[in-house]
Amino acid sequence: MRDTVMSTGTEAHGSAPAPLSVLDLSVVGERAGAVEALTQTVALAQEAERLGYRRLWVAEHHSYPASASPAPAVLLAHLAAVTRRIRLGSGGVMLINHAPLVIVEQFGVLDTLYPGRIDLGVGRAPGGLPTVAQALRRPSDDPGPDAFEAQMEEVLGFLGAGPGFPAGHPYRRDQVHVVPAATGLPVWMLGSGTTGARVAARLGLPFVAAHHINAAQVSRAIEVYREEFRPSATLSEPYLMVSANVVCAGTEAEALAHARSRPLMLTLARQGKLTTLPSPETAAAYPYTDEERQVAEELLASGVHGTPDQVRAGLTELRESTGADELMLVSMIHDFPARLRSLTLVAEEFALDCGSGD
């Protein structure tokens, strides 16, 4: 899998400290809706390909006003049809919500239709509140990391990766046939803490450390992943991608203005108020308490925001501190032109292989 994980159709990443990719959350802003958000994701995927980014992944969120992406496999099918070369994947499919066989069949279809372009990124969180989890027809109690690792082993078994199912197992190939087969499909483990890191290490999978979700836990998660990694039939040594909140603009003030939307959204969520992504104007006018402002500033400081040279410095520092093999940019920017501009400025700063999708 190591060769497949790293294969992109174009290996150039300019002067970037590591290959750069994009995680798009199909952002729903306060002045928009889900239809507009999905249309923007399509345009962003096409632009990311033109700009020379290595991958574009989409997420799985349920009943979440700020994201219009509850069904990664469906969205990826459309994105693959309107792009040519960029790798596409899930960041991630929330395994706890699905039967492993269903995921393998869905991504088997994608991999068959678009060979060599699909990544299966898997996460453990439900992607929604407990009531939403119940509506997705799974038990309200968390089955725990052991059960999750068993589910991951099922995914790998159906893909024919690793040792497979033991003799006598009801899911062996003579009993359950995966059609179409997706042998060789890259499987990534996502995590914002040590649970996902340990599962990735034990199963010998590439790991995505979600710095954009929980920056404080990333160092420990990476340490656990590297310390406990066991080589597998598909990956001989640890392979790490780190995702980070990134906003790039012509001036530092402009970048920070856009970046403040996310901390306000999270501040409101902690009060039980799930909202669309606030605009920069709404974020600037919000009457923070002293405690809220401190938390919001800490969230802001965990990202990489500023002018192109400041973003270069921030991403270089992140690469050096984590040893990441790849970096994935997450841009929770309310205004779509500014979101596209952010990706463009980063690509131009690092002289990515622009035009590779033509």
How would you briefly describe this protein structure?
Helix content is 44%, strand content 13%. With 358 residues, it is α/β, with parallel strands linked by helices. Helix 2 links the parallel strand 1 and strand 2.
Structure description:
With 358 residues, the protein is α/β, with parallel strands linked by helices. It has one domain (2-256, 305-349): TIM Barrel. Helix content is 44%, strand content 13%. The protein contains 14 helices and ten strands. The protein has helices at 2-6, 34-51, 72-81, 100-113, 130-135, 144-158, 194-203, 215-228, 252-259, 261-270, 280-285, 290-301, 308-322, 336-349; strands at residues 20-24, 55-58, 87-90, 93-94, 118-123, 187-191, 207-210, 240-248, 304-306, 326-330. It has an eight-stranded parallel beta barrel with strand order 1-2-3-5-6-7-8-10, surrounded by eight helices. The longest helix is centred in the N-terminal third of the chain and has 18 residues, at 34-51. The radius of gyration is 20 Å and the shape is globular.
